[in-house]
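FORM 7B: Structural annotation worksheet

SECTION A. Query
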Amino acid sequence: MAGEEDDIRAVYGALDRCLQYGVDPFGWRMQLCIELAALSDAQVTLCGEVAAIWDDERAMVRHMVDHGWPSPEAQSHFVRYQIDGANRRDPMRRALDTLRSDVVVAACSQLIEVRTYRQSDIYRQYMAPAGIGDIMTAITAIGEVAEDRWNLATCMRPADAAPFSGRDRQRLGLIAAELRGLAGNRLADATSPVASLTDRHRQALGALLAGAREADAAATIGVRPGTFHGYVQSLYRTFGVSSRAELHSRFYGSGRLWDGGAAVKDSRRHRLRRAAMPMTDTWPGRTTFL
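SECTION B. Predicted structure
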């Protein structure tokens, strides 16, 4: 009982920290990646929004961040898994396809016998070179299921680590259930204007929200005052405002922009972009926890 209570406290503490970046889809998803790594003892974590996640022909990543790759080479093998379309042939995809629901949480080791999976061509060609062992995934509908928008959160352990446990899945299940109501609401989704900002525009927005004068902000980010003013005008157009006061009001009480450290910024630079995901078709909604 005490362990369950500890897990609940840990999960809601993690979600509270994500809500601090609720206005910023990149920020809260990156924070979630960090939280999931700590909660599940995962080496690599990914979080993003995918359209038509269960349909191989229409699946499209709208926003994705990743965290914790031990090397660019390891990450490149996983990216190749997506680019080559191996995700469509993955036995885990087929197993997940039988669990379609508003919220699905499952681990590869739970769905497929470990030795069998590691003898598959998919594992030997892509996962093994990337150093990936067990994979645990949560797929959560954003808004109504008919909208066909999904939040994806994935945790990966190294090949020599223990598989994810039932307790790991339970913690991820608690997070996934809460994301069902938070994503696209208190946690901004890919439709937010913030999701499409360039790094420079994010820097400019952060400076404006912090109250910096344009000249000082321009010097801080290393651009000419005229260039920075152009960023400001572009931000006003993006958010449909005409003054800094109106811009502040748009963000009041909804969190702050992500300002993570160098390791996380490197993860963002290499974040995954792929057009199809490891799953397929829409269905009537229900909830599945395993």
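SECTION C. Observations
The beta strands are 44-51, 60-67, 103-107, 132-141, 149-158, 287-289. The mean pLDDT is 86.

SECTION D. Sign-off
Analyst initials: ____
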